[in-house]
Amino acid sequence: MKLVALAVFLATAYAPVQALWPLPQHIETGSSTLRLAPTFQITVAGHGVPGDLVAAASRTKQYLFGDKLERLVVGRGAVDAPSFGHAKVLSRLTLSLERGASFASVTSEAQKAPEDRDEAYHLVLPADGSAATITANSTLGLFRGLTTFSQLWYEHDNTIYTVSAPVTIQDAPAYPYRGLMLDTARNYFPVSDIKRTLDAMSWVKINQFHWHIVDSQSFPLEIPGFTDLAQKGAYSSSQVYTPNDVRDIVSYAGERGIDVMIEIDTPGHTAIIAEAHPEYVACPGATPWATYANEPPAGQLRFADAKVTDYIAKLFTAVTAMFPSKLFSTGGDELNTNCYSIDEPTQASLNATGRTLEQALDAFTQETHKALEVKGKTPVVWEEMVLVHNVTLSKETKVLVWISSANVKAVAEKGFQLIHAASDYFYLDCGGGGWVGNNPDGNSWCDPFKTWQHSYSFDPTANLTAEESKLVLGGQHLLWTEQSSPQNLDPIVWPRAASSAELFWSGPGLNISTALPRLHDVAYRMRQRGVNAISLQPEWCALRPGACDLTA
Amino acid sequence: MKLVALAVFLATAYAPVQALWPLPQHIETGSSTLRLAPTFQITVAGHGVPGDLVAAASRTKQYLFGDKLERLVVGRGAVDAPSFGHAKVLSRLTLSLERGASFASVTSEAQKAPEDRDEAYHLVLPADGSAATITANSTLGLFRGLTTFSQLWYEHDNTIYTVSAPVTIQDAPAYPYRGLMLDTARNYFPVSDIKRTLDAMSWVKINQFHWHIVDSQSFPLEIPGFTDLAQKGAYSSSQVYTPNDVRDIVSYAGERGIDVMIEIDTPGHTAIIAEAHPEYVACPGATPWATYANEPPAGQLRFADAKVTDYIAKLFTAVTAMFPSKLFSTGGDELNTNCYSIDEPTQASLNATGRTLEQALDAFTQETHKALEVKGKTPVVWEEMVLVHNVTLSKETKVLVWISSANVKAVAEKGFQLIHAASDYFYLDCGGGGWVGNNPDGNSWCDPFKTWQHSYSFDPTANLTAEESKLVLGGQHLLWTEQSSPQNLDPIVWPRAASSAELFWSGPGLNISTALPRLHDVAYRMRQRGVNAISLQPEWCALRPGACDLTA
Questions:
Q1: What ipTM was estimated for this complex?
Q2: pLDDT category, B437, cuts 50, 70, 90?
Q3: Which of A70, A109, A334, A467 is catalytic?
Q4: I need a surface site. Which of A72, B51, B239, B257 has the fewest CB within 10 A?
């Protein structure tokens, strides 16, 4: 047995890990060592190079020389040191657009509608030390190539090197929408936490930040013309996102190839609006809360009231001016009808107009969505708006499937483009125990914990016809923050959220065993860059690919 | 409904939270506001005051003026500000020993055997501004009183105050052993992380650090005379605990009223010893590992070999010199017999001596435990040593029940003192998903996640007779670190581990609903002191005690 075992260790210990994440569509690698010259330069060919691409190239250099990540093998970088002596040296990486393409900022390319984003790139790293090249049809593609390039290198004893030269990569994403959702309403996250998260997202080519910014518990968004909402609804004056903060976050994201989709969840999840406008909210703080809402506190917009509809339409209009994204989520989840049955003003509105609650909801939705569409925004809604309620939606409306992956088929059958966000695969907060008080052994409604392996094994087109499959825009992990805060943001998100990033970039059906060593590399590299990604295994396993597999 | 709801909010929003944790045995509080004088002093009466008590008093002052924690109510400290004007001012806290008691260092009192630790104290905080007092029979009691005193105060607008004066507390722990176990072998934790954890432990009066320092994956302890184990078995030369590190940690703990119990787990969980002494280890790296060990890598001490027994006895002796604690854990969990059935040297030893494997294990245990006992140490073992194996143990041996709380009764029936450490109540790592690779939907063996509420609801004497109940020394939370590392240490431990700290100090049967607001206070205060305790609920709930209860 011992001999067998030792043989296994040697094999795994010295097999170089090709640690790119997400895995490129097509890749060829060699086994030559190539060193990075201390004078290494990244140049961009052509005129009118946008500033955010130049900044990205300079950040890439900082990562190359700053990561100081030793390769994850037994003996770490010392194993590779013997090959440094006769290794060729790389002094230049050149980026250039394909013939006919013209420069636009990474930001503007990232903020296009998902279907219009061009993220494809071609990367060549010769083994002989001659210049490496990244070519693409867009600056966004060049940016993705830079991200890939930075993952090829390790450090040992002040030598920056790769053991996999030459490298040729032809790459493009399987799906145009690869997101991450963060809830900043249950608990507040400073701008610095959001920026750090955006950096980590860009490292694994996530291109969509879905910002669930407000909810029933707090309203931290300062909206010009509607500032009383944050003044009275934020947890404190220091827990507010000002228009400057939003500009800062949106531009920081754009420079990193990420579009910011804001969500103003309506008409449910709006109890906090009562702090500024009690007249607009039905059943605020009604108890028992469980009868009137899925979460405390109860309170929903009186959408049957024309004044409320007009108010929200104007609020949406004001918010569209803050976010350049083509996408705007209006929410629409978990509407509780009991709340309206005890709300006299709503009952009076319905009686006066002779409408049912559903008809009033339809009118509210059409009015508020119209306010978005005149501003060139595409509405995004949670699944209930097409599966539970019978509201009129433009056929461009995108649908977030969250309750269960079993509902994907029904949404597709209605012909809407959809985004995978199912709680049974992509909720980062599941498995941490129920958060409502007075609940001794209660665990979370969406137990168990969603492991990276589980998310990674998701099939985006399960049960869909070829036609329905075309409706899949992509998918994302989500963090609802009833039990999360800046204190555990990194550990609960990373590296798990990288699993959906690869699933929706590289496509489904990849092998979990071969992914694990690459994911270790992602986590270790994130730590070197200041993101607290957790350990997925004992370090002993991280250094021995496969040795801790169930079947090893 | 609205009126009812608003009434609820007002009631909860302005009900002062008595936020002490763990809850004292006897406490009387008033509702007067008392401010802390900027010149506030802590003095210790008597001669020969130990330096670590003086240091503790000075740390307490730093917390009082540095915490800057606003009270957790709607409106935070501003709610209390109106009462500042006519509030009395406290300028002094005096500590003194009861008549007849004499000063010894907090450290030496903390390092006594659990049953000899005197942690009782009497705290009086008058409302009229006259000096507050803490009296006790030991410096350790005075130290616990200081910890309680520091939890009474909040800050608003540079005013340090309490809204609960006068306060009278008579307190002592229900159980003498209140621990936290950390595994530093699966993944390594720098000394600074351990010190920060020791600080947080002391804030909730945990008095025992159970240090599972080595295991099959790595050997980070540098032991004088046995340095090859760490040289060859640590993850790297920078991931080692030197004798200086150990002295540093032990004294840091002692000054904070914490004893450090080291665990050198034998004869299982020892594969890494093969890196330095292959001749001492059976089936190192045997595959499939699942046949030969509960975790990769396989590998266990050849305890049937007299040379190995002698080596471990000498190793234990060397380790006893590094740790002043009366307790020393020798492990004894998860011994795999298949490993020995394929190990020719072990089979040869057994044949040569005519002993069974169990008889050899008994001899090994007696020899190695004798090495501890001559040094005045009490052996501590995992439950298998009394429930699975038939080894001879001194009746002073303490037993850690880990497999299941259902095994507590069986251990008590054998007459051993026991420490509650059951995986079904106190394992902090459960519910995070299985960590072995190639395991798509696998969740952790001890799912689900152990919520603080679940741990808190544990009954330490369930099914025990009055006599057996006397054998319960206390209990602890435990963190096995297959999927933990410095990146998630604070969030996975805090504030959850505070639930067992209160259970074993205040005693069982406390109310979860009234505990939650106090636990929020613990978490918020920890954050102010630099420990990343997570949020247990949305901040909206943290500011409204009871409003987010399931039944509210």
A1: 0.95
A2: confident
A3: A334
A4: B51
**Side chain identity at B90, as an amino acid letter?**
L
List alpha helices for B163-305, DSSP H: 191-203, 227-233, 243-254, 289-292
**Closest to B430 (Cα-Cα) out of A546, A443, A550, A437:** A443
Q: Confidence class of residue B1 from pLDDT cuts 50, 70 and 90?
A: very low
**Helical residues (DSSP H) of B374-450, grouped into ranges:** 384-387, 408-413, 423-426
Give the pLDDT of residue B12.
Answer: 37
Task: Give the H/E segment covering residue A261.
Answer: strand A259-266
**Residues facing residue A459 across a β-bridge:** none
Distance of residue B323 Cα from the nearest chain A Cα, in angstroms: 26
Q: Residue A156: what pLDDT?
A: 97
**Same structural domain, A91 and A213:** no
Within this chain, do residues B113 and B242 fall inside the same structural domain, yes or no? no
Question: Would residue A415 be called left, alpha or beta, if left means φ above 0 and alpha means ψ between -120 and 50 degrees?
Answer: left
Cβ distance B548 to A436 less than 8 Å, yes or no, reads yes
Q: Identify from B451, B480, B525 which residue to disrupt to test chain A contact, counting A C-beta atoms within 10 A and taking the largest count.
A: B451
Restricting to A residues 152-191, those with a Cβ less than 8 Å away from any Cβ of B are 185-188
3-state secondary structure of A275: helix
- Which of A238, A252, A265, A223 minimizes the C-alpha distance to A107? A252
Q: Looking at the structure, do residues B156 and B245 belong to the same domain, yes or no?
A: no
Residues B370 and B446 in one domain: yes
Mean pLDDT taken over chain B: 95
All residues at 6 or more sequence positions from B318 whose CB lies less than 8 Å from its CB, including other chains:
B223, B224, B225, B226
A537 lies in a domain?
no
Instruction: Kindly list the residues from chain B whose CB atom is less than 8 angstroms away from the CB atom of residue A235.
Output: 539-540
Give the CATH number for residue A349.
3.20.20.80
Whether residues B203 and B67 share a domain: the answer is: no
What is the pLDDT of chain A when averaged over all its residues? 95
Interatomic CA distance for residues A367 and A361, integer angstroms:
10
Model confidence band, residue A3 (pLDDT cutoffs 50, 70, 90): very low
In a domain, B176, yes or no: no
Residue A108 is part of a domain; what is its CATH number?
3.30.379.10
The string of pLDDT tens digits covering residues B198-246 is 999 999 999 999 999 999 999 999 999 999 999 999 999 999 999 999 9
Inside any domain, residue A137: yes
Which of A221, A235, A307, A309 lies closest to A264 in space, CA to CA? A221
Give me A326's structure tokens: 């083509």
- Report residue A9's pLDDT band, with 50, 70 and 90 as the boundaries: very low
CA separation for the pair B199, A122 (Å, rounded):
52
Name the DSSP class of A223.
-
pLDDT, tens digit, 9 for 90 and up, residues A64-100: 999 999 999 999 999 999 999 999 999 999 999 999 9
User: Does pLDDT of B2 surpass 90?
Assistant: no
Q: What is the structure's pLDDT at B369?
A: 98
Q: Is A339 helix (H, G, I), strand (E, B) or coil?
A: helix
Which residues in chain A have Cβ-Cβ distances shorter than 8 Å to B457?
Answer: 440-441
Judge if A274 and A423 occupy the same domain: yes
Q: Does residue A17 lie in a domain region?
A: no
- Give the pLDDT confidence of A395-429 residue by residue, as tens digits: 999 999 999 999 999 999 999 999 999 999 999 99
Q: Do B153 and B278 belong to one domain?
A: no
Assess whether B334 carries a catalytic annotation.
yes
Q: Which domain holds residue B247?
A: 184-508
Domain count for chain A, please give it.
2
Secondary structure (DSSP) of A90-149: EEEEEEEEPTT-----HHHHHTS-GGG----EEEEE-SSSPPEEEEESSHHHHHHHHHHH
- The residues near A38 (Cβ < 8 Å, ≥ 6 apart) are none
DSSP state, B221?
B
pLDDT of residue A443: 75
